Amino acid sequence: MSFSDLFDSEFKQRNRGHFSSIVRVALTDEKFSPEEKAFLDKLAVRLEISPAEYEEILENPLKYPINPPYLHEQRIERLYDLARIVHVDHHLGDKQELLLRKIGVGIGFNADNIQYIVDKALKLVDKEVDLDTFIFEMRSMNK
């Protein structure tokens, strides 16, 4: 196995784990709303989840290990990606903030602050800031 194959395999495994953890969060109420399903469809494409993997994860999200980001910056990067996906397509309509808060807690943000974090994230994404600016603003929002 070449180094690039190893990296590619690790990247795909991380994406499957990330998608699986989001599916778990979406299933906390034991079913998907149509909006959540549309979001998952879009996210699967973005994370390069094959149709077979997609169906497998929806049937059994516990199959793949959760790999929540342990570094704060990685959480912010995931929040940036998720906020952009939600915001760009407006797939979730009025429920976009609710789902983003739910997922934000699932990827490791503090539940007590999640509304403030998501509000800030969506405002930044609305301004079309780049990742570096997003990270800087999210890190310094309490200062």
UniProtKB/TrEMBL annotation:
What domain of life does the native source organism fall in? Bacteria
Q: Which InterPro entries match?
A: TerB-like
Q: What is this protein called?
A: Fructose 1,6-bisphosphatase
What is the originating organism of this protein? Flavobacterium fryxellicola
